[in-house]
Amino acid sequence: MSRESVAARPRRGCSYRSIATAILNGGLNGMARGKDKKNGDAAGAKTNGNGGNLGFEAKLWAAADALRNNMDAAEYKHVVLGLIFLKYISDAFEAKHAELAAQTAQGADPEDPDEYRAVNIFWVPPEARWAYLKSMAPQPTIGQLVDDAMSAIERDNVSLKGQRAIAHILGTLDDKIELSRRMNETLEAMAQALFKSWFVDFNTVRAKGRISEIPTDLSTLFPESLCAENTPAGWQNGILLDLCELKRGYDLPTAQRAPGSYPIISSSGVSGNHAVPMAKGPGVVTGRYGTIGEVFFINRAYWPLNTALYVRDFKGNSPRFVYYTLREVDFLTYSDKAAVPGINRNHLHQAPVIIPPHVLQQEFDRVLAPFWARQEANEAETATLTALRDTLLPKLISGELRVPDAEKLVEAVA
How would residue 40 be classed by pLDDT, with cut points 50, 70 and 90? Predict the structure, then answer.
């Protein structure tokens, strides 16, 4: 892998993220911007109620955007994390540099690192300065230049020592979380593709007699041909109510929620947990009010919120088949035209659907069972890794937890 590919080296890419996190969260002993002795704010900077600089986000994005066009998108996201840190400290450094340059007649030296450290501003060496990096944006090595700039800043600022080790730990967890997320997206796309092939496009029925590679035990489950309606012969042309019955979810004000392990499912997905469930799993939930068109599968007992519709009766059909069928429904056809979109279950019940025999639905479940098992394992692992990462970050930044001890914890679960 080429040296220019920042994304190819997660350790350094992630170090940008962790250093930026430490700085933006007020860590590292308040370094980065000089503090006004009277009010503690960055000298000359306007702040909001939380101490953040107004307009900083806009300036940062514009600065990052200037370097965007010369690298792959996968690399760019990591370089931007470095730029978050670099741009943050560059503003203060450049302001102080200009101030010192104007005072050279009085003996000030704008290239003396101690001038900056004395007022709690990071010293930025020439190869890490924003003007230089921006001027090098057209070069194909810009990713490496940003990486080298980070190394130079760490080299010349003692307070940053050890951040790469912390970043490597957190980056390892983040990489595994991202890998699980992407794997689940791929597994879901494969399951959706198989459903569409079997039950929407009827590819297996169309291929019978033309493709001899279809396994005999699978081939016998599909009809020989399509009927006049261009649907598989013998399959039911019905409406959603023939497949399942939807019901409005239940009210649960925030003040009445009790800590527990049962997920609360709203129109937009999981919105917390509660001590008791209101529906058994597996379950299928979709939006009734607010967010329309999202469909969720829950493999255990849960609480469907009043902004959602949940399947009360699967009528003997496979819950997974019902889930994928609902994902094919055009919800906008059945929603009202109010400012906040909503949907009436009685209208949605009239959506036309094709219902294959239960034995074929069961075969669909059997074929995809390993995919869904892998998804659940990934989700459980992601929950564990996310909790560990969120626990380690403040302890590592504060020094409460030593790097070697954190590495052992990560090795135990990763």
Answer: very low
Q: Is 60 exceeded by the pLDDT of residue 62?
A: no
CB atoms within 10 A of CB 28: 16
Mean pLDDT is lowest, of 41-45, 107-111, 123-127, for 41-45
* CATH superfamily ID and name for 236-355: DNA methylase specificity domains (3.90.220.20)
Three-state secondary structure readout of the chain:
CCCCCHHHCHHHHHHHHHHHHHHHCCCHHHCCCCECCCCCCECCCCECCCCCECCHHHHHHHHHHCCHHHCCHHHHHHHHHHHHHHHHHHHHHHHHHHHHHCCHHHCCCCCCHHHHHCCCCCCCCHHHCHHHHHHCCCCCCHHHHHHHHHHHHHHHCHHHCCHHHHHHHHHHHHHHHHHHHHHHHHHHHHHHHHHHHHHCCCHHHHHCCCCCCCCHHHHCCCCCCECCCCCECCCEEEEHHHHCEEEECECCCHHHCCCCCEEEEECCEEEEEECCCCECCCEEEEECECCCCCEEEECCCEEEECCEEEEEECCCCCHHHHHHHHHCCCHHHHECCCCCCEECHHHHCCCEEEECCHHHHHHHHHHHHHHHHHHHHHHHHHHHHHHHHHHHHHHHHHCCCCHHHHHHHHHHHC
Least confident of 109-118, 167-176, 285-294: 167-176
Domain ranges for the chain: 6-161, 171-210+358-414, 236-355
